[in-house]
Amino acid sequence: MYFSSCVKMNVFIASVFFFWILAVCLPFPLHPKITVGTVWKRSSASLLNKLKYMQSFFNLEGNGKMTSETFELMKQPRCGVPDMAEYHFFPRKIKWPMLDLTYRIVNYTLDLSWEEVDQAMHEAFQVWSDVTPLHFTRIFNGTADIMISFESKEHGDIVPFDGPLGQLAHAFPPGDNIGGDVHFDDDETWTSDSTDFNLFVVAAHEFGHILGLHHSSDPEALMYPLYTYRGLKEFVLPEDDVEGIQALYGPKKRTSSAIIPQRCDPNFSADAVADIHGDKIIFKDIFVWHHNYQMIHEDWMVIDSVWPELPNFQIDAAYYSPEKNLLFLFRGKRYWALRDYKLLSGYPQKLYNLGFPSYVQRIDAAFYDAHAGFLLLFVLSCSYDERFHSIEHGYPKQIKEEFHGIIHKVDAAYHFIRYGCHISLTHCLLWSSFCQKLKVNAGFQKSGNKIWDC
């Protein structure tokens, strides 16, 4: 149930605490074996324990005492599903017995067009189907596994809504009857941007619950209880959520219909390129190609056939450090280190270990200049000093500030030793920039397939 109300400052703290605990820590009878009487049986000691748990969950101090920090947290919009997976009414690892699920949008909010609502729901389901074998099919009549509706106040499921700025939505775990259903509070203002409450963000979180996920204590996770607007452009499901949902349903299976890239395609655009002693390792979708000037392995290889320890997914960025003899691969908010085609222990690690702020969801490209000991990672053209494990002073910068002439998003980059220049593959074009000036050589703009000597 997405997000308890934002209380006003003039409400007595004791009242706020009592009702917040009732709304958040008191589980609703979602499991048919639990009676209403069992669910609502509580004592003052129980409420105190719930406050202690809540403070521990959000890494707050207080030991059960109402602090100003705790009070401020209680005012934030949040999901109303309890934070404890140990609640006995919510069985561990509850999941759907099938992978093909149907959904139906029963009615619509007036805040958005039907097309905007349809798109938000489709994209919210796709967040989960992109990383699992789950498949969601929309139906327009009859009873679906997942019934989606906009409701107001009392609406027949013993969990009434409370008007604007209260609970935004609630969801029920996998099961028959009401199980798997999602209700959105129609008294809220729903949007498709960062104002008020973004329907895609709320729906994606709630769909996690209807698939069997509990809350995560990772502040970067989609399943974190507190509502946070997330940029929708190129949204990447955080790794914590990926691990959680794949623990229930497994990873997305590779299909034989994957399109094998054509190396001399004039529209070719690499996902990542790494230079290892003059050889290029080129990544595209779930494939990798080893290219050198004496010999070219003509066939693309599937990534997990080369590195079985790696999940079989698209690589965002890659670079090789000759000093460490390590190949670094980036995907989402995690990165891997490999030596001689073997994964190092202790990996994957998270981007924030490199000093990146929490809002960085992925690395777009990377190249490493071994002569200068300089690593440039492209997000907003962030420079990372590998020697000091920190973001270099003055960064991040806009790419166009650092490389005059490049105005597009960078897809991949590498240090091309033969010409002593950096190559950035952006929108299927090559750009050359010398280390000292970091200026684009306009005369070097070429088609992306030139990395193959086509």
TrEMBL record:
GO molecular function: metalloendopeptidase activity; zinc ion binding
Pfam families the UniProt entry points to: Hemopexin, Peptidase_M10
Alphabetical list of PANTHER family matching this protein: COLLAGENASE 3, MATRIX METALLOPROTEINASE
Binding-site residues, Zn(2+) 2: C79, H205, H209, H215, M223
Residues that, per the record, bind Zn(2+) 1: H155, D157, H170, H183
Coiled-coil spans in chain: none
Positions that bind Ca(2+) 5: A318, A366
Keywords on record: Calcium, Disulfide bond, Extracellular matrix, Hydrolase, Metal-binding, Metalloprotease, Protease, Repeat, Secreted, Signal, Zinc, Zymogen
InterPro entries linked: Hemopexin-like_dom, Hemopexin-like_dom_sf, Hemopexin-like_repeat, M10A_MMP, MetalloPept_cat_dom_sf, Pept_M10_metallopeptidase, Pept_M10A, Peptidase_Metallo
Name of the molecule in the record: Collagenase 3
GO cellular component: extracellular matrix; extracellular space
GO biological process: collagen catabolic process; extracellular matrix organization; proteolysis
Hemopexin repeat boundaries on the chain: 312-358, 360-406
Localisation per UniProt entry: Secreted, Extracellular space, Extracellular matrix
Binding site for Ca(2+) 2: D145, N177, G179, D181
UniProt remark on cofactor binding: Can bind about 5 Ca(2+) ions per subunit.
Modified residues (Phosphotyrosine): Y347
Species this protein is from: Pseudonaja textilis
Ligand binding (Ca(2+) 4): D271, D316, D411
Main location: secreted
